[in-house]
TrEMBL record:
Gene3D superfamilies: EAL domain (3.20.20.450). CDD domains: EAL. It comes from Pseudoalteromonas aurantia 208. This is EAL domain-containing protein. Residues 216-472 form the EAL domain.
C-alpha cells in the first residue's frame, strides 16, 4: 500500500511539473520546457524527495491509475501553494536541501495524499476523501488549516528566513466536468491571482466566476481583433434628440456603436469590458469618430446644413493627447465639421479632472468641438463640474425621469437640475423618455431636450441620412 501511495505521489509531482511547465513555458520555448523536464527527472533520480527511481508517467497513465481509486466515492481536494507572496527561493538546484526540508515538513504536518514541487515558487498538494458530499465551507476550512500548519520560516544557506504563503484550492470528484490535470491547473492558476489579492492569502475556486472571467477574456480577444484589424465589424445607429415643442425635426443625434459578432452581443455587454482596456477604448472611439466624420462630410459635400452628433468618451481618454491628435488629423480636410461634434463625457467616471484633462479639453474646444456631461446627477460632484466652463450641455441620469410614472408624478431632483442649468444658461437633455406622461412633464421646462424610445428608436445610418436629406437644422 505504501508503494502505491509512493507511486501516486511521484506521479502527481511529476505530472504537475510537466503540466505546469507545458502551460507556462512550452508554447514559448520548447527547449526550455525540455530542460525543465530533464531537471525534474534528475531530481527524482537523485532521490531528493522520493525513494526509488521512476520514469515520468504521462498524463493519461497517471489519470487512469487515479481513476482506479474508487472513483465513484472519492473527492479530490487540490491546492496550489505559493512559497512566499514575494519570491523567497531563487533556484531549485541551489536550494535543493532547503526544498527537501520544507517538502518533508509540509508532508508530515499536512499529511497530503500527494505533494509536488513545481519550480522554485509553488507546491501542489492533493487530499483524497471518501464520499462526494463535502461542502464548500468544509473545503475552505481545510484550506485555512493547511495555511496554519505551514512553517513560518525556512532554512536557506544556514539562515532562517521568514516565509508567507498564498493558497488557491478546489474540490472535485472523478465525475466532475473539470476533472483533468490541465483543467485543474488552469483553474488553480486563475484562483492564485485572487488569493494573492486577498487579505488572508486564500481563495477557494468559484467555477461560475471563473467561467465569467474566461468568457470576458474570450470576448475581449474578439473585440481586440475587430478593433485592430476589422473596423468594419462595427457600425453606428443614431438616436435623435428633440425639443418638446417640435418632435418632427431632430435637433441632435447620439451615435451608438454596434458590433457584428457571431454571438450577437450588444453594447451593454461589450462596452463595459472596454473600460478596463484603455487602448481598446481609444481604438473604439477612433472608429466611431471616423464614421461620424464620414457621414457629416457626405452631407457637407452635398451642401446640406449639418445636425450635431454626440460621441461618448471617458475621462480616461482625455488623460492622454491621443484623442486630440486623432481628431486634429481627422479634421484637416474639413475643419468646419468640428462644431457639429459633441463629446459626451461620463460623469460617473472616477478619474478626477486633472490639469492634463483640462488642457486636452481646451485644445479640443479650440478645434471647434463641444463637451456635454453624461449621466449628470443631482449631487455636489456633478454641480462642481459646471464651474470649469467647458460643458455647454448636460444629459441627466435617466433614473430621474423614470420617477414620472403617471400624470400626477414629478421629479424634484430633475426640477432642481433644470433650475440650476437655466441659471447657468445650459441645455439639459433628458434621456430615457418612455411614456406620454414623461413627455408632457418635460414640456414644462424651457431649456429641455429629450431623447428616448417613446419618440424614436435609434436610426440606421441609411435612415439617418434619409431624415437629414429632408430637413437640416443648426446647433441650438
Amino acid at each position: 500500500m505504501n508503494n502505491l501511495f509512493l507511486l501516486l505521489a511521484v506521479g502527481v509531482a511529476v505530472v504537475s511539473i510537466v503540466a505546469l511547465v507545458r502551460m507556462s513555458t512550452l508554447r514559448k520555448k520548447d527547449q526550455k520546457a525540455l530542460r525543465e523536464i530533464k531537471k525534474a527527472k534528475s531530481a527524482l533520480n537523485k532521490k531528493i524527495f522520493y525513494h526509488g527511481d521512476s520514469d515520468i508517467p504521462n498524463y493519461r497513465q497517471f489519470m487512469q491509475k487515479l481513476l482506479k481509486v474508487e472513483r465513484k466515492f472519492t473527492r479530490y481536494h487540490i491546492s496550489l501553494i505559493k512559497l512566499g507572496k514575494q519570491p523567497v527561493f531563487d533556484d531549485i538546484d541551489e536550494q535543493l536541501a532547503s526544498f527537501s526540508e520544507l517538502f518533508n515538513t509540509i508532508s508530515k504536518s499536512c499529511e497530503p495524499f500527494a505533494l509536488a514541487l513545481y519550480d522554485s515558487e509553488y507546491m501542489l498538494m492533493a487530499f483524497v476523501t471518501q464520499g462526494t458530499g463535502a461542502n464548500t465551507q468544509e473545503a475552505i476550512e481545510k484550506q485555512k488549516n493547511i495555511l496554519h500548519k505551514l512553517p513560518e520560516q525556512v532554512l536557506i544557506s544556514g539562515t532562517k528566513v521568514p516565509i508567507d504563503y498564498a493558497i488557491s484550492s478546489l474540490s472535485l470528484t472523478g465525475y466532475s466536468a473539470i476533472y483533468g490535470m490541465d483543467k485543474v491547473q488552469r483553474r488553480l492558476t486563475y484562483s492564485m491571482d485572487h488569493a494573492l489579492e486577498s487579505e488572508d492569502g486564500t481563495f477557494f475556486h468559484n467555477e461560475q466566476l471563473y467561467k465569467a472571467e474566461m468568457y470576458k477574456k474570450h470576448v475581449l480577444r474578439k473585440l481586440t481583433s475587430s478593433i485592430s484589424f476589422n473596423p468594419d465589424d462595427f457600425y453606428l445607429v443614431f438616436q435623435p434628440m428633440y425639443i418638446p415643442s417640435d418632435l418632427d425635426k431632430p435637433k441632435r443625434y447620439e451615435a451608438l456603436i454596434r458590433w457584428k459578432n457571431h454571438k450577437n452581443l450588444g453594447p451593454k455587454t461589450f462596452i463595459p469590458m472596454l473600460k478596463s482596456q484603455p487602448g481598446l477604448q481609444e481604438g473604439m472611439t477612433e472608429i466611431v469618430l471616423n464614421q461620424v466624420f464620414s457621414l457629416l462630410k457626405v452631407q457637407l459635400d452635398s451642401k446640406k446644413d449639418l445636425t450635431p452628433i454626440h460621441v461618448n468618451i471617458t475621462k480616461q481618454e482625455l488623460n492622454t493627447e491621443h484623442l486630440f491628435g486623432h481628431l486634429k488629423q481627422l479634421l484637416k480636410g474639413a475643419p468646419s465639421i468640428a462644431s457639429f461634434i459633441v463629446f459626451e463625457v461620463e460623469q460617473n467616471d472616477t478619474l478626477t479632472e486633472s490639469e492634463l484633462i483640462k488642457s486636452n479639453m481646451r485644445k479640443i474646444i479650440n478645434l471647434g468641438c463641444r463637451f456635454s456631461i453624461d449621466n449628470f446627477g443631482n449631487d455636489r460632484k456633478s454641480y462642481q463640474l459646471l464651474s470649469n466652463g467647458y460643458y455647454k450641455t448636460i444629459k441627466v441620469d435617466k433614473s430621474y425621469i423614470g420617477e414620472v410614472r403617471d400624470r400626477h408624478a414629478t421629479s424634484k431632483s430633475l426640477e432642481q437640475i433644470m433650475s440650476t442649468a437655466k441659471r447657468s444658461k445650459l441645455t439639459v437633455i433628458v434621456e430615457g423618455v418612455e411614456n406620454r406622461y414623461q413627455l408632457d412633464y418635460i414640456k414644462s421646462f424651457e431649456n429641455a431636450m429629450l431623447q428616448g424610445y417613446y419618440i424614436s428608436a435609434p436610426l440606421s445610418a441609411h435612415d439617418y441620412l434619409s431624415v437629414e436629406s429632408k430637413q437640416s437644422v443648426t446647433l441650438s
